[in-house]
Design brief:
The chain is α/β, with parallel strands linked by helices and about 190 residues long. About 35% of the residues lie in helices and about 20% in strands. Strands 1, 2, 3, 4, 5 and 6 form a six-stranded parallel β-sheet that branches. α4 (about 90-100) links the parallel β3 (about 75-80) and β4 (about 105-115). The chain is globular, with a radius of gyration of 16 Å. About 35% of the residues are buried. The structure holds flavin mononucleotide. The site of flavin mononucleotide (FMN) has 13 residues, from loops. Flavin mononucleotide binds near residues 87 and 115. It comes from Chitinophaga caeni. Pfam families: FMN_red.
């Protein structure tokens, strides 16, 4: 079984990231052979990076870092669900990325962004570029949701339109190929 981690970027009280994230989680259940886990960075509640050593050394001092490292280390693929804050992805996601190094490496990632008229695309572009520093390979098949608020119903569920569902289908179709390929690269079996 591959392990897929869906990571929601925002931490503010009242954040809507988990509403979008839960839809991503339920959509990803279609993926045969994947065990899906949803991670809300607001729940995870990592402090600002407080480790004394470069993460490459993996000399983690704090329990929160050890737990975070174990969770990311066991992952085979990611989907980042990101808000757009001031034309970029939220700082807590950057902080969560910076905590670790090797644990991220040689793994593929889908990106789902949401926002107003921009659909979070500036956050998407920022995150996509930054992921290469962690040797995470972002997939071309992104999902960018404009005016996402209008797709949240009275029960607080995200109900996508056709365009967003098609984008999800494309991501679901690609993710297994990259996950299998990156496993070979990670284990240096090519
Ligand atoms: C600090 C802050 C900055 C924001 N900047 C943007 C922005 O640059 N572009 C955008 O489309 N929406 C922006 N918004 C509106 C967000 O799209 C909206 O509040 C969304 O719900 C934020 O995600 P969250 O609920 O998961 O925190 C911003 C919201 C906050 C709180």
């Amino acid at each position: 079984m591959f392990k897929l981690k869906i990571i929601s970027s925002s931490v503010r009280p009242g954040r809507k990231g988990p509403i979008v994230g839960k839809w991503v989680e339920s959509s990803m259940q279609q993926l045969a052979g994947f065990e899906v886990e949803f991670i809300d960075l607001g729940e995870l509640n990592l402090p600002m990076m407080d480790e004394p050593y470069h993460p490459r050394m993996q000399k983690y001092q704090h329990e929160h870092t050890k737990a975070w490292a174990a969770k990311i280390d066991e992952a085979d693929a990611f989907v980042f669900v990101t808000a757009e804050y001031d034309y970029n992805y939220p700082a807590p996601l950057r902080n969560a990325l910076e905590y670790l190094s090797k644990e991220w490496a040689y793994k593929p990632a889908g990106i789902v962004s949401y926002g107003g008229i921009s659909a979070g695309t500036r956050a998407f572009v920022g995150l996509k570029g930054d992921l290469s520093s962690f040797r995470v390979v972002p997939l071309m098949e992104s999902i960018n949701i404009p005016f996402f608020d209008q797709f949240i119903n009275d029960s607080g569920e995200f109900v996508p339109n056709n365009a967003t569902m098609k984008a999800m289908d494309a991501l679901i179709a690609e993710l297994p190929r990259w996950t299998k390929g990156m496993q070979l690269i990670r284990e240096n079996r090519l």
